[in-house]
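Issue 218. Parser rejects a valid record. Input:
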Amino acid sequence: MTNASSNQKQKLVTVIGVNYAEEIVPDLLEKSFETYCGKDFSKKHFQVSVHENTYATSAIVLTVLGIEAYRNRIYYLEKKGVNRNVAHDLSSVFLSKDSSFPVQDFEAIFNEVFVIRDVIVHNHIYEIEVVSDENWDMLSHRQKLLEGYGDDQKFRNFVNNRIRKTKNLGLNVQPGKIGFEDLFKVLIIFDTFVGISTKLFTNNYTPFRFMRKINSQWEDKLSIYLAQFYNRLPDKKYRTSLKKLLDSVGSKFDNFIPDYWDFFLHNRCPGKKCRDYGFHQPSHITKCNSCGFEIRPIS
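Output the parser choked on:
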C-alpha cells in the first residue's frame, strides 16, 4: 500500500508554444536561407520561390506563436488576465516595471509582427498580373488585394498599401513575397522581446533555451547564431536597409535590453566608426566582417 505522505506532486503550466522557436524554427531558417542565396538579386521578382516562401512563412508563424505563449506565461506569473491584443498586453506589463518604457514604439513594431502572422494564417488573397519580356524576365507587375482581406483596423494602421509592406519593419504583406528577409527581421524582434523581458523581469519569465550545433560546436546564444546569417547576406541593398532598421530599433530599446552581446542588437563591432552587427560569431570568432576589426584569443 502506497504511503500518501511520501507521494510527490508537481505543478506544470502548459506553455508549449515557446518550444517551436527553440526546436523547429532554426531548421526552417537554414532551409529558407539556402534557397534565398540562390536567387538572382539583379532581377525583379513578384514573388519568392515556393521553397523559400514555405520555410519562411512556417517559421514566422511558429516564432509569433512563441511570443504569444511567452505573453501567456508572463501574465500567468504576474497573476493577470490576458486580452486579445498581445502587443498591448506586453507593453502594459513592461510599462508596469519601468515607467519610461516606450509603449507606442513597442506596440507599433510588435503589431506589425502580428500583421504578417495574420496575413499568413488567414491566407490573404491577391490577384497578380505580371508583364515579362521574351526571356520571361519580369518588367512590371500589378497586385490587387481581394475584398474581405486586410480590412481590419490593425492592417490599415500598420501597412503601407502602396508598397504592400508594414510601415516600420518593412515586412511584406503580399503572401507570395514573404521570404527569408522577413523571417530574419521577425527573429531579431523576437530576440529583442526576450531581451526586454529578461531585463525587466528575469529569464525565468521568458526561459528561451537555445542550443544549436554549428561547425561541430554547440552554440547557446541566438545572437551568435543569427550573426552567421547576417554576415553572409548576399544582397547588399537588403543588408544596408537592415542595418538602418536595426539602428532605429536599437535607439528605442537599447536601454531595455541587458547590456551584453547575448542579444543581437548589442552584438556589434566595438569600433566607434563602424558599429556594424554580427561581431560575435560561431566558433568563438570575434570579428567585424565590415571593417575587419578582430579580437583574437591569447594562445
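Fixed in the parser; the record now loads. The chain has a mean pLDDT of 90.
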